[in-house]
Amino acid sequence: MSHIPEDLIKKHKKIFFTDARGSNSIHLEDKNESLLLKESFSKKNVFRGMHIQIPPNPQKKYIKVIDGRIKDYVIPLDSKRIDFGKIYSFDIDQESDVFEIPCYCAHGFHALEDTNFMYICVGNYSDAHELSIVLPDFSDDLHRSKKDLSGISLSHSLEICKDINWDEFI
Predict the structure, then answer these.
(1) List of domains in the chain
(2) How far apart are CA 132 and CA 81, in angstroms?
(3) Global pTM value
(4) Integer Cα distance of 2 and 120 in angstroms
(5) Which spans in the chain are helix H?
(6) At 52, is the secondary structure helix, strand, or coil?
(7) What is the spatial distance between Cα 100 and Cα 63, in angstroms, rounded to a whole number?
(8) pLDDT in tens, 37-88
(9) Most buried one in 52, 81, 107, 154, CB count within 10 A?
(10) Which has more confidence, 49 or 162?
(11) Rounded distance, CA 130 to CA 133, Å?
């Protein structure tokens, strides 16, 4: 067997983060293809989100629970939609399908038990274009990051997003 040239098969190094809530791994970040493959482990009662990337760096997400169970949350932030700003939630477990979250939706989830979660993001991440939205009606016993606790209100995010034209990114 011959040696495979580096320009033929490219190996991506895993980036791993851990804290009291669990862990987060970036398995692949390819900025040329605008593709990000991530995995998280969240302990029971961890809440991750609500996040959205606004133009010019929006991200569509594909999500899958590998093991465990979550309550997933999605908020459409496209002002042309009749449900602009409405909060949707639904339960997902390892038996569920893969779900596609459009780029115009803020997304987050609550781990109802210890959960392994995979997601693919289409679109490059940009810290400068990420909104973190705080939903005040969540229980105080949920474990959230400092970033998630210090985000903006839903009403402020609606104001920011009301004039965005998402059509070119859908």
Answers:
(1) 15-169 (2.60.120.10)
(2) 21
(3) 0.92
(4) 33
(5) 146-149, 154-161
(6) strand
(7) 7
(8) 999 999 999 999 899 999 999 999 999 999 999 999 999 999 999 999 999 9
(9) 52
(10) 162
(11) 10
